[in-house]
Design a protein that fits this description.
- By secondary structure, this protein is α/β, with parallel strands linked by helices.
- About 30% of the residues lie in helices and about 25% in strands.
- It is built from 14 helices and 18 strands.
- The protein has helices at about 40, 80-90, 110-120, 140-150, 170-180, 195-205, 210-215, 220-235, 250-260, 270-275, 280, 300-310, 350-360, 365-380, and strands at about 5-15, 20-25, 30-35, 50, 55-60, 60-65, 70, 75, 95-100, 125-130, 155-160, 185-190, 240-245, 265-270, 315-320, 400-410, 425-435, 440-445.
- The strands form three sheets. Strands 1, 2, 3, 4, 5, 16, 17 and 18 form an eight-stranded mixed beta sheet that branches.
């Protein structure tokens, strides 16, 4: 039986347009748009009518970088797929792409099946997977082909974390060559992990154990060097490259130089690099541990380069790298040794609001907000136009957003399963009011009406910037 929803009177914002339009939803998809007050819109009827007067009507956010239930450093990320996708919905994100992990000595299939089992039946919003490659060999290279056909069309490699996720340049080159052949997009954690480990050992030997040293040993030059090296390897392989969580001005410069040559090189940054800094890492009484993530937070002066990169399109996407660990009992594993602090920050619930604050602050336009948070991640990872826009035929992943409301971000009110907020006490303008996922209300007037199991696995096509 057909179910229809009508969203009336809002300002529809996509990456391409802003228009005062009514939106008709039928059977989980966008059926039509028509100018508000037009004869066409006036003739529409629906069982459910949502009044969006003085509100924005925007596509659900696409967060292409999350780590739910990720094992790391002897513990696991504190958000499950259930709690993490519920928090995503509260923040106006209706699709996540999480990372399935291959462990050394095991197949990609084993890692992927483990992540399918974690997510299946537990998600409040839709989800896809990237695949982390930890063990590049002849068999896993063949498996890459099979995964692309299954809708897992992106593969992450690490130049960091020797002994855990690290791949050497030869392994990276081989994976890139395979991606060039099968259409898979290579994602890179670009930091020189071998050199960083030397600096960690030397810092600890000097008695430099506080959280702030996590940022000091992970030098900006070692992010820039690895970014440069990844770009050159991708050129040799004839492969596109997507560099994750870019944090440093010098790394942005490497991406900009590659893009100026017309190379298929892309970059992502995260809210923590846009709004937080080494000042947070240096907070006293071990509070800085809350802000330990890799790549690390940088001095404030790097923020201007990141915002500029987002405006010039040298950076295309803002994802969260959501990987929460509680301060009590998890971050505290690193008391007396910063290298043992689990790396990761919570943020899946905050991204859309923080980026709207960036609109208010004049860093980006409204359409660019939707572009970097919804449309481009959907295109980058083969989900567009099913996700990332409001257009006939698209999934009805729609957010009614109040641009005038103010809220104060706090662990006391957020829905992520973590005991602190990285943005505690920050007041932002704008708030999610209602969220539809494939036409079903998940958040209704600031009340959660969704359920675990509504979210479906979404197979992805290959990167849509390479066609």
């Amino acid at each position: 039986m057909s179910t229809r929803t009508l969203i009336r009177g809002g300002l529809v914002i996509t990456a391409a347009d802003e228009l005062h339009a009514d939106v008709l939803i039928e059977d989980g998809r966008i059926a039509a748009l028509a100018a508000h007050g037009s004869d066409i819109a006036a003739g529409w009827t629906a069982a459910r009518v949502v009044d969006a007067t003085d509100r924005y009507v925007i596509p659900g956010g696409v967060d292409a970088h999350t780590h739910m239930e990720l094992p790391f450093g002897g513990t696991s990320a504190s958000d499950t797929f259930e709690t993490g996708t519920r928090a995503a919905a509260w923040g106006g994100t209706t699709t996540i792409v999480d990372f399935a992990v291959q462990t050394v000595g095991h197949t990609l299939r084993e890692g992927l099946d483990t992540w399918y089992a974690k997510a299946d039946g537990n998600c409040a919003v839709d989800y896809g997977f990237h695949m982390i490659l930890s063990d590049v060999n002849e068999h896993t290279l063949k498996e890459m082909d099979w995964l692309v056909q299954e809708g897992i069309s992106s593969f992450k490699l690490f130049m960091a974390y020797p002994g855990v996720f690290y791949s050497d340049d030869g392994q990276i080159l081989r994976a890139m060559q395979r991606g060039a052949a099968n259409g898979g997009l290579i994602m890179m954690h670009a930091e020189n992990g071998i050199a960083i480990d030397v600096l960690v050992e030397q810092a600890l030997a000097r008695g430099e154990t506080d959280p702030r040293y996590h940022g000091e040993v992970r030098k900006t030059l070692l992010e820039a060097e690895a970014t440069h090296r990844a770009i050159q390897l991708s050129r040799v392989a004839g492969s596109p490259l997507y560099v994750v969580h870019v944090s440093a001005e010098e790394a942005v410069a490497e991406l900009a130089a590659a893009r100026d040559k017309g190379l298929p090189v892309f970059g992502e940054t995260c809210p923590q690099y846009l709004f937080l800094s080494t000042d947070n890492l240096a907070e006293p009484d071990f509070e800085g541990a809350k802000y330990v993530c890799s790549t690390p937070l940088r001095p404030k002066e790097h923020q201007a380069a990141l915002w500029r990169g987002l405006r010039t399109n040298d950076l295309q996407v803002v994802s969260t790298d959501h990987c929460p660990f509680c301060f009590k009992g998890q971050k505290e594993l690193g008391v007396g040794d910063f290298s043992k602090i689990p790396n990761g920050l919570p943020g899946v619930e905050n991204r859309m609001d923080l980026l709207h604050q960036a609109v208010v602050d004049g860093h980006i336009s409204r359409r660019r907000w939707i572009e970097i948070a919804c449309a481009t991640p959907a295109r980058m990872f083969g989900l567009y136009p099913q996700k990332g826009t409001i257009a006939p035929g698209a999934d009805a992943d729609v957010v009614i957003y109040d641009p005038h409301a103010t809220q104060t971000l706090s662990a006391a009110t957020h829905h992520m399963n973590v005991d602190y907020s990285a943005y505690e006490g920050k007041t932002v303008t704008g708030q999610v009011e209602t969220v539809l996922s494939r036409g079903e209300p998940v958040i209704d007037q600031r009340k959660f009406t969704g359920r675990a199991g509504h979210g479906s696995f979404v197979p992805r096509s290959t990167c849509q910037y390479l066609n």
